[in-house]
Amino acid sequence: MSRHEQLLARLEIDALNAEFAYRIDRGEPETVVDLFTANGFYARSTGEKSVGREAIRAAYRQRAAAGKRTARHIFTNLRLTHESDSRIQGQCILTLFAQDGEPPLVAEPFLVADYDDIYEREADGCWRYAQRVVTWRFVQRDGKVSPLALGSPS
């Protein structure tokens, strides 16, 4: 992959992360499944994992059924390692503001987490998540952590 192609891939992956946040924050969380490969998975480092688009969709449906949530996902510090022309490892940091209810709400971080991702470019030329693994680093003092119930531990 040339330097120009690497920079273009970085822009596309940064846009993918922004789209992921936008869809969740603006009320379309079930559509994030379109950003994953068909067999992609979303997991926590503690072992809970949702494999495949339907399992990920089910996790977001369950979260939505719990009631109104206002959230803003802020992804920063993107770091990429190119494995091939169609596969890239990446890390980024999530700062999440989230509370149940309607805004305006108190601006207090809900969670700070590391994301370890594998991005794959598919036949249509789009980068998608083959995997997203979340590791919590900072949580609210009361210990409440996850608004998303991923699958059972593997």
UniProtKB/TrEMBL annotation:
Residues 6-132 form the SnoaL-like domain. It comes from Acidovorax cavernicola. SUPFAM superfamilies: NTF2-like. It comes from the Bacteria. This is Nuclear transport factor 2 family protein. InterPro entries: NTF2-like_dom_sf, SnoaL-like.
